Amino acid sequence: MRADGFDLELDTVEPGAVVVRVIHGPEACDDCLMPDERLAAMLKNTFQKVIPGLSEVILKHENQA
User: Fold this and answer.
1) Full-model pTM
2) How would DSSP label each residue in 3-46?
3) pLDDT, tens only, 18-51
4) Which of 15, 16, 18, 64 has its CA 20 to 30 A from that of 45?
């Protein structure tokens, strides 16, 4: 994702949910970013291995100037 101008940051871990910030860099290729539903599903699958009871990944998009 970094090659396309994006970065991911873990924001918060709440009961049953993880909030991940999707940071759009100044040169981000918005057409290159996968749909939120797909990205959230991939992250959920990964996080569930280390966070028992996780049921949701929430994506927060932020633009960097």
Assistant:
1) 0.90
2) GGTEEEEEEEEETTEEEEEEEE-TT--GGGSPPHHHHHHHHHHH
3) 999 999 999 999 899 999 999 999 999 999 999 9
4) 64
Mean pLDDT of the chain: 94
Edge-to-edge strand order for the sheet containing 56-63?
6-14, 17-24, 56-63
For residue 41, how many C-alpha atoms fall within 13 Å in the half-sphere facing its CB? 5
Task: Name the domain count of the chain.
Answer: 1
Portion of the chain with pLDDT greater than 70, in percent: 98
